Amino acid sequence: MGQYNKAIVIFLVCLSFMYPPVILSSLADGYTRIKLKRMKLDKASRVVSHFELSHSLRGRYGNNTKSSNGLDIVLLNNYMNTQYYGEIGIGTPPQIFTVLFDTGSSNLWVPSSKCYFSMPCYIHSKYRSRMSITYKSIGQSGAIEYATGSISGFFSKDIVRIGHLVIKDQEFIEATQEPGMTFMTGKFDGILGLGFREISVGNVATVWESMLNQRLVKDPLFSIWLDRSDNEENRDGGEIVFGGVDPKHYKGDHTFLPITKKGYWQFEMGDVLINGNSIGYCQNGCPAIADSGTSLLTGPSSVITEINNAIGIKSFTSQESKSVLSDQSADTIGAPDVDCGKAASMPNVSFTLGGKDFVLTPQEYIVKDGEGDGTHCVSGFMPLDIPTSHGYLWILGDVFLGTYHTIFDYGNLRVGFAKAA
Predict the structure, then answer these.
(1) Closest Cα partner for 113 from 97, 129, 98?
(2) Cα(58)–Cα(215) distance, rounded to whole angstroms?
(3) Fewer CB within 10 Å: C terminus or N terminus of the chain?
(4) Which residues of the chain are under the pLDDT cut of 70?
(5) Dihedral pair phi/psi, residue 67, rounded to 5°
(6) Which residues pair with 290 in a beta bridge?
């Protein structure tokens, strides 16, 4: 989500030891896991999700036990299958923050104790430099632009803990200004970008780059598995594995595509099909990115409107997309509702990657609404026109990544997809 979706949940943690592990559970397989919780979708949270999605998109395009095999795993919380976030620690002793792990941006930022005039800072955990004995002052200002304003603040340096990984001297932004509604309603405190340094504000080393430079992970890749099961008893949201891949997370082999442009995890996507029939739009290739920070799957208005019409949505057009992207109050935003009971008659939608068709069934691309009798759903496809030099950009967000386990292979500059287990 790069600067896409951003969300919220307040975890009040009492730090009674100097170096507590930043994990919520330690499983028998020896992996370090930071748990994320699943929350039910309702009207308010659904609107927030769409609002935050477009917010971040416009911003960046408009301008837990260490395993013996060297892997470190972060367990993710799942907020209504649209926001996936986990805990990290910053400073000594660690101050705990929930962050969105975002492959569509490259900076780490959290609210600062010096954030006095933005309401979101008062309902989220704030970093207090005076409480950390490993804090180092930088002071240089930094800002990340969004549709309705910007996240702004200043750079600092401190230890960052992810699971049992201890990353020394990591630069991050202490946010002193945050746009109101977006971060008031988010389920996380800040964002941890997992994109390339090419889009890092201030050209600072990313957290992932620091992991590699400090030789904290086994292999130069990480993988993401998002849990989108409907089991209400299962509150876990998935896992990020730093330094490797957990074979329990996928079925079959991965299809790999080379990165075509560093910055985002960008590659070339092939054809788009509805019930196996080509739309014809991307037969000669389209630019696409894999973005864990975007809730939905977005593409050019004309194609997404055709897909949504096939699903049964007649009104969610590019004009409504513009209203979602505008700086309006959240309750004025219309969401693309569909009838969950009609899922059996909806078509499959496929995307050709590396010569293979990756199918999304209706059960995989609609997001269930927890309101009332739960008979309504939200379309997982949103029209968004983001021009590039090679055509409009497609964003394969959580709707796609939840169906297909993803390997982000930094060492070989490629991204791989396989059916999620």
Answers:
(1) 129
(2) 35
(3) C
(4) 1-83, 146-149, 180-182, 185, 230-235, 314-336, 369-376
(5) -80, 160
(6) 396
Angle formed at CA 222 by CA 263 and CA 153, multiple of 5 degrees:
50
Interval 72-95: pLDDT, tens = 555 555 444 456 788 999 999 999
What residues contact residue 257 under an 8 Å CB cut-off, 6+ apart? 267, 268, 353, 354, 414, 415, 416
Q: What is the pLDDT of residue 71?
A: 53
Q: What is the mean pLDDT of the chain?
A: 77
Distance separating alpha carbons of residues 304 and 56, to the nearest angstrom: 19
Q: How far is CA 420 from CA 222, 254, 362, 380, in A?
A: 15, 10, 16, 18
* Beta-strand runs (E) in 245-290: 250-258, 266-269, 272-274, 277-278, 286-290
Whole-prediction pTM value?
0.82
How many CA atoms, within 13 angstroms, populate the side-chain half-sphere of residue 265?
Answer: 36
Cβ neighbours of 379 (radius 10 Å) = 23
The residues assigned a catalytic role are 102, 291
